[in-house]
Amino acid sequence: MPNVESFQLDHTKVKAPYVRLAGSERHRLGSVLQKYDLRFLQPNQNAIPTAALHTLEHLLAFGLREELEGVIDISPMGCRTGFYLVIWDEHQPAEVAAALTRVLQRVINATEVPAVTPLACGNYRDHSLFSAQEYARLVLEAGISDDPFRRT
Ligand SMILES: [Zn+2]
């Protein structure tokens, strides 16, 4: 069986919301890629409805690229409790947590969702800015930790 890092994580021990460096890969020529978990909700206790998750995906796609250099991809987790971030170079969890906090603060004040057209999106009818803002508020009120286990 292949080793999938995220299936090794004990999902009962983490305390959301948090960002977690799930892995770093160094290419033989020296480039580094990082994968981060951006966990919004406590695993196995709740899940973001798809319309809110989809709207957050659109807003994070623009917002995190404004905040962080080298963003390759932001994708929703299948369990709907957060997102994966793939990014070039080495970033610190605290830097990612601060960037995500600033993006979610802007989500709360957003008045429209970018790229909601049949040309730009694969399911443009399935969006909810209202719901996305409610979940952004929940996450911000709880505070985004850079330690998934909140040891400090
Ligand atoms: Zn879309």
Can you characterise this structure?
This protein has 152 residues and is α+β, with helices and mostly antiparallel strands. The chain has one domain: Gyrase A, domain 2. It is built from 4 helices and 4 strands. The chain has a 4-stranded antiparallel β-sheet with strand order 1-2-4-3, with helices on one face. The chain is globular, with a radius of gyration of 15 Å. 32% of the residues are buried. The mean pLDDT is 96. Zinc ion (ZN) binds next to helix 2.
Topology (elements, then pairings):
Layout: H1 5-8, E1 18-26, E2 32-39, H2 50-67, E3 71-76, E4 82-88, H3 93-109, H4 129-142
Antiparallel strand pairs: 1-2, 2-4, 3-4
Helix pairs in contact: 2-3, 2-4, 3-4
The structure holds zinc ion (ZN).
Zinc ion binds near residues 54, 58, 121 and 122.
Concise summary:
The protein has 152 residues and is an alpha+beta fold. The protein is built from four helices and four strands, in the order αββαββαα.
